[in-house]
Amino acid sequence: MSTIRILSDRVANQIAAGEVIERPAAVIKELVENSLDAGATRIEVEFRHGGRSYMRVEDNGKGMNKDDALLCLERHATSKIVETVDLDRLGTFGFRGEALPSIASVARFELQTRPAAASSGTEVAVNGGKLLHVRECGLAPGTRITVTHLFSAVPARRKFLKSDATESAHIIQAVRLYALACPQTAFTLIEDGRILFQSPVCLTLVERVAEIFGRQLAGDLLAVEMMEEGIKLTGLIGRPGVSRTSRHEMITFVNRRPVDSRTLNYALIESYATTLAKGRYPVAVLFLDLDPAAVDVNMHPAKREVRFRSEGQVRGFVIRAVLQKLRETGHVAPVAPANADAEMRKAEWRRASSFPAPAASTSAPAGSSVSVTPHSPVPPIILPPAGPAGSPLSASAPPFSVFRAPPPVVLSSTAAPFAPPRTPGLTGWRFLGTAHGDYALFESPAGVVVVDRRAAHERVWFERLQSQFVRGELASQRLLFAIPVELDAIGSALLLDRLDWLAKHGLEVGEFGRNFFRIEAVPAWLEPEVAEDFLRDVLGLIREGRLDEKNPRLAEEELARLAAQKAVRLPDSANEADALALLARLFACSQPHASPAGRPTHFELSRGELAKRFQR
Ligand code: ADP
Ligand code: MG
Fold first, then answer.
1. Closest Cα to atom 17 of ligand 1
2. Can you tell me the distance from the alpha carbon of 463 to that of 475, in angstroms, rounded to the nearest whole number?
3. Is the Cβ–Cβ distance between 452 and 466 less than 8 Å?
4. What rounded mean pLDDT belongs to the chain?
């Protein structure tokens, strides 16, 4: 007897559900997409307990007759494509005909639907893939789908769900993406009986952004529009200076579909390179429209990743469009970023991020030059070209080898880790001055030490704040004038949950009206001018789950890391006393070598190394 069997539909659906339906937000995404595909101009989404106990999506779209209402629960039943060639011309969100049967196989599922022409509707109820009943029901034209007890029969999947707050943040984000994609459809989102956002039909994207992110952000955005050889980019980008700690507000759509695209993210970040600090992300809502045949959306049923047939062209186009806009506002130098600082920062970012370095913009070929500043008055040092790996040339020229990989100096610091003096007295140390504002130079008994002032300052503050948090010393200063802050629905919901925790850490925020807050007191170490930025950054961390209440120690560490960047400003110039004091404090730290973000704080060129370089 053969051991191979055809899977029953029910089992096949449950397996497919594992791919398509990873979490409650995926159910919402599929249902909202179906509503939009059905031409709805009004969609209402409601959920409870992060979606695990209850989700409802209701629309005023075209509805289904009784036959279709039954058929749509069959695997691969779709009204949207007939042949695979259709995939290239896809104008709808759905096409696989997998979502509904998958959802119905792992939850209790109830569909009520009615086409406008029919006098009554059809109700179909299914539980864990088993049909419970089909009957007539009363209903306004449109479709209502209710999903309850998600994964209750699949404990393995239920285990993977995160806290209600996390699942709910995913749902809110999903709905918000579709609301941005379709401003002409009215959206309502309700959680546990509370309206999170409600946006009427909007005529423009800015209006929709204002509805869901708040007027304040909407006012900080610039409209972009550019078209070129069949590709079109439209949407909104943040003014330079507007940035976030997370990528959540870098929102991109391709042919109206929300996507995660390294190419687009990278292009955006690169466009802002000169104005973005490390670890910060721009804000943007961008729509790229191009020939569907030039995009591959069929990579993974649940993932939002897309691939472009021509990544380089898309990337270049987006960078040009964004840069042009930024230049018009006068925030970007008219020529491509030519200052060493920005280039270094970009290089750093590339190293720190998972994005591959773009082939096109890698600057000098390896082994050619160590010039960092293009306008440097000193002619660049031309090095002998690196020989083939393992050749006598590369083996016999060790003093040069450290220069070959950019940035040279950082590499040499890892090659020769610097040991801080045992006594913090710094005997025999001399401050030589600062270079380019950022770097303090010292002569040490063992050589020459270069300190990144900012990295050192952040390390010192990070450890200071951490120990204050541990000791519970959290002095705060009450503000004479409270600072008003408008947040979006997610931000408000998250903040409301954390008001006490923040107050315990010196940041007192009060709610006054829906989505409106007031910063009333700030921690003693925070300058009031940056309080709002700080609060928004804190919310970014909360959204990423990095300020987890269940792990207070880690949460405080994250808070201290962020705070160190914002804490009391670094003076613009350093005199000898300040410089030595900073150094002494740095060496008193438990981990003086790296900034809280993991950048090196300093490195030493030993006398031996100096002598070697000068071939003495
Ligand atoms: P797909 O969207 O890939 O076609 P689904 O399983 O999501 O597959 O839906 C199956 C079919 O059910 C759709 O093709 C559509 O015809 C119908 N359908 C689903 N949701 C709705 C809705 N809200 N209104 C009208 N028809 C719907
Ligand atoms: Mg669908």
1. 72
2. 16
3. no
4. 78
ω into 407 cis (within 30 of 0): yes
Q: For residue 34, how far is its CA from the centre of ligand 1 (angstroms)? A: 5
pTM for the predicted model, two decimal places: 0.61
At 1 the pLDDT is 55
Measured between alpha carbons, how far is 193 from 179 in angstroms, rounded to an integer? 20
Distance from the Cα of residue 256 to its chain's centroid:
19
Pocket of ligand 1 (CB under 6 A): 30, 34-35, 38, 59, 61-64, 72, 77-80, 94-100, 143
Give backbone dihedrals phi and psi of 66, rounded to 5 degrees, phi first.
-60, -45
| Residue 172, amino acid | I
What is the spatial distance between Cα 414 and Cα 402, in angstroms, rounded to a whole number? 11
Please identify which residue in the block is written with the tokens 């209850």: 54
> How many C-beta neighbours within 10 Å does residue 359 have?
7
- SS3 of residue 192 by DSSP: coil
Locate the ligand 1 atom nearest the alpha carbon of residue 59 and give its number.
23
Q: Which of 89-98, 135-144, 265-274, 453-462 has the lowest mean pLDDT?
A: 89-98
- Nearest CA-CA partner of 235 in 275, 272, 267, 206: 206
Pairing of strands 42-48, 186-191: parallel
Residue 2: band (very low, low, confident or very high) from pLDDT cuts 50, 70, 90: low
Query: For residue 531, with 0-12 CB atoms within 10 Å meaning exposed, 13-18 middle and 19 or more buried, which class applies?
Result: buried
| Among 568, 564, 567, CA closest to 594 | 564
Largest Cα–Cα distance of the chain, in whole Å?
Answer: 97
Cβ-based neighbours of 270, under 8 Å, separated by 6 or more: 319, 346, 358, 361
